[in-house]
């Protein structure tokens, strides 16, 4: 029977019996979740082309100690005008549009000129 479990060793097994047979205790029901990949600051842009660097807080992208996690780029965004200034210095229609373009956002509202 296929009933995936996550072993304490971080590996996904087909079921609890298979995990125990391989010497792993069951940590959780279901497949193991991968740890999010870090990005930003000293880590650089380590995200794949299908991801963007998502900062937890507004206004921290660009700081030397500002780290984030890679998240999948959205494939579709609502047609709502709620402008944000992207971490790349470009203004986007909303936070989803910035993420779809591959960037987090620095602040709500349009980017200020030089």
Question: What features would you describe in this structure?
Answer:
A hairpin with a 4-residue loop joins strand 7 and strand 8. The mean pLDDT is 87. The chain has a 3-stranded antiparallel beta sheet. A 3-stranded antiparallel beta sheet has the order 4-6-5, with no helix packed on it. The protein has helices at residues 16-21, 95-100; strands spanning 5-7, 12-13, 26-29, 38-39, 51-54, 68-72, 84-86, 91-92, 105-108. It has 114 residues and is of the alpha+beta class. 11% of the residues lie in helices and 25% in strands. The radius of gyration is 19 Å and the shape is elongated. The chain has 2 domains: 1-34, 2-Layer Sandwich (Wheat Germ Agglutinin (Isolectin 2), domain 1), CATH 3.30.60.30; 38-108, no CATH class.
Point out poorly predicted stretches. Answer: none
The N- and C-terminal alpha carbons lie at a distance of 62 Å
* Large-scale geometry: elongated
Number of helices: 2
Give the mean pLDDT: 87
Beta strand %: 25-35%
Described by strand count, sense and barrel closure, the largest sheet is: 3 strands, antiparallel
């Amino acid at each position: 029977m296929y009933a995936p479990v996550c072993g304490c060793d971080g590996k996904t097994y087909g079921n609890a019996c298979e995990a125990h047979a391989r010497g792993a205790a069951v940590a959780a029901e279901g497949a193991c979740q991968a740890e999010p990949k870090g990005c930003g600051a000293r880590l650089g842009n380590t995200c794949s082309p299908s991801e963007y660097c998502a900062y937890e807080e507004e206004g921290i992208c660009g700081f030397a100690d500002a780290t984030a996690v890679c998240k999948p780029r959205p494939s579709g965004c609502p047609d709502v005008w709620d402008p944000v200034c992207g971490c790349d210095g470009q203004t986007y229609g909303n936070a989803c549009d910035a993420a779809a373009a591959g960037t987090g956002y620095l602040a709500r509202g349009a980017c200020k000129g030089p």
